[in-house]
Amino acid sequence: MSNIESRRSSEIVGLRNLRPVMLTTDSGGEQGQITWGDRQLDRQRQSHHILTLRRLERSAIELAAEKAVAAYVQLADAHSRRQVLSEAKWELYRAHKESQIIAGDDAELKAKFTVLDDDYFMRVRLAGME
What predicted TM-score, i.e. pTM, was given to this entire model? Predict the structure, then answer.
């Protein structure tokens, strides 16, 4: 005789045939169980809920991507405008320095170069506004 007991005792065999009880959300049920039709409806609603959540998640991701693209375009635009402004400033500075060097101490040349520099400044400014 073996000292090992059988795992299948008469008490456990009866437990294998039990089905889990699915409780309803309301307490009005007679037995407290969900019928087959209610389970089907619950599964359908759960599937619909999951699909709705996935759709909302996709739309949120798409919206975030659109916002990121718009922000990137704005940053690139600001960067390009900054570069144009910086170049315009250096051009004006260079023109002013050249005028000072060429005119030297001559007051008449300084006056003419000042007018030319002002005209150049207006053209550069108008080009930068476009």
Answer: 0.48
Angle at 128 between CA 123 and CA 130, to 5 degrees: 105
- Domain boundaries, position 48: 10-129
Tell me how crowded residue 113 is: count the other CB atoms within 10 A of its CB: 19
Structural domain count of the chain: 1
**Residue 75, in any domain of the structure:** yes
Q: Render pLDDT for 43-60 as a digit per residue (tens, 0 to 9).
A: 999 999 999 999 999 999
Cβ atoms within 10 A of the Cβ of 110, count?
14
CA–CA distances in Å: residue 112 to residues 51, 74, 102, 120:
75, 41, 11, 12
Nearest CA among 110, 120, 113 for reference residue 88: 120
